[in-house]
Specification:
6 helices, mainly alpha, globular
Length: 147
């Protein structure tokens, strides 16, 4: 009888933990797929580019400046592919999140200040990054300790 009572009291906690694990897994894989696909698109151009006439002029100018460097868009695409694959396979996840963090901030700020049309997706990407960073917070603690 005691074992039954103990199982009944710990069961909701176990289910909650399982739900959190599945939510983290789904978020990690979906975010990884998003960055892998968009990174590959930077090299292979299989998705149609937005029409510049429908974009804000500041967003077009920013993209043109990145393109004019001759390397920045390729660097961004390469980092997206590497970090996205790491997220999908579940290896070096904290490293992948650290690599993507500056890109996620930049994506968000571009949509806030230069190209407001994609702000909804940008917010979802920020929430995914924050959620994953929170789920892996124990892995980040040593990096954040003063020595």
């Amino acid at each position: 009888m005691t074992a039954t009572a103990t199982t009944a009291t710990t069961s909701p906690v176990a289910r909650k933990s399982a739900i959190a694990r599945y939510a983290t897994l789904a978020t990690r894989v979906l975010t990884g797929l998003l960055f892998t696909v968009t990174g590959l698109n930077g090299f292979l151009n299989f998705m149609p580019a937005p029409d510049p006439s429908t974009m804000a002029p500041a967003g077009v100018a920013f993209t043109a400046a990145l393109y004019a460097t001759g390397y920045m868009l390729q660097l961004v695409a390469g980092v997206q592919v590497v970090a996205g694959v790491l997220l999908v396979i579940g290896r070096f996840v904290p490293l992948a999140l650290a690599l993507l963090a500056p890109m996620v901030v930049n994506i968000f700020l571009i949509h806030v200040f230069l190209e407001p049309s994609g702000l909804g997706i940008a917010i979802l990407v920020v929430l995914a990054e924050i959620g994953l960073a929170w789920a892996y917070r124990d892995r980040f603690r040593p990096m954040l300790q003063a020595r």
